[in-house]
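ingest -> validate -> predict -> emit
validate: passed (alphabet ok, no gaps, 236 aa)
predict: started
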Amino acid sequence: MERWALVSGLQGDLDLYEQIQKELKQQRGVANLFILGDLIGSQHKCNALLERLRQPQRADLPPECIYGWWEEQLLAECGYRGERKAESLRAEQGEAAVRELLAAVEADHLNWLASLQFGFIELDCALIHGSSSDVGDRLTEDTSALVLLDRLTRLDVNRLFTARCQRQFRLELSGGSIQSHIKDHAGEQQSEQAVPKRSVIGIGGGKHYTLYDPATDHIEFRIAGEPSNASGRGFG
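emit:
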């Protein structure tokens, strides 16, 4: 049994990362560690964590990283996204947060951050910070089923793991169909599209992380530093 560990929102916190690494070593069968973005943030000096991610220690479960919303803001502000700047960060937290983010990450790490992928496709699963629509897309347990289905079908996967909202949940889109009725100059057309059973999973953020067994489709929501039986929670 090989399980995945899904983490996001470390935001430069090396101590938290070491705590999660310690717990993963004690878990049976965890073979892959995926970090779904927000490696950096404006509240910590992020360089020590980035160096650890880029050069794992011998005992570490090697991390596979993608970029998230915070990386996107930094790269945009530093000229890696053409004419775009960190306008989303400015709008949400102000100019001071942009300055703090720039000060939190040394320039030596920018090329590595820019080399990270938008997401992973593993088996029938998509692992993305936001969604297939945008890195900043916040999917939650309250998002409409049609939006969730759109995000899944864009990538043709049955399970979408997302981290942007930093919440832990699992939503099942049970098998059914979508009926459409179109009327135009050529007449009327009706169609019906089958919808397979699919899932959208929020993996959490920061100390909240997720373990997933792709062989059994079993999910365990964890909280770093707490017993496993205290964190197996979520939304159906």
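The two ends are 24 Å apart (CA to CA).
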